Amino acid sequence: MKLPILIHPDPRLKKVAAPVDDISDKLRALADNMLTTMYEAPGIGLAAPQVGIGSRLIVLDCEKADDAVPRPLVMVNPQVVAASDETNTYDEGCLSIPDVYADVTRPEAVTVRWMDLNGAEQEETFDGLWATCVQHEIDHLEGKLFIDYLSGLKRQLITRKMVKLKRDRARDGA
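Structure (tokenized):
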């Protein structure tokens, strides 16, 4: 089932998400719905706060090539446990800030620890786009958006654009 994605500014996007202490069928269903929502958007990552759920749950799949085998990842309580000194700058976007992109510099590689949907601890090192995406989604769990890395003026302009978008969508019944 496709879920509605919150659009910035929304106070729920600025809240720190609560840790998940029980891997339940309800959580598995939420993860499935988040993957459906992410793929249909289309996007490469989605955090539970973006669909109005204040839990530490993210989904991602950065396999973008047409011939690539999908690699959907579901991470419960993800945390970065190591980061490279080298950085990369990517033109980031966000499903909660549609049609807005900006360069954000982050560590080029990160090691992330999380629980899978069976409750097993996982750990993997990601680089390139995967590293950027997982850091972006974990930021959502901390109430942080990619525009928080931009200057105050750029943030204000983007926020005004999103307020107008939300107003136009409400007027059009979208």
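The mean pLDDT is 96. The first strand starts at residue 45 and ends at 47.
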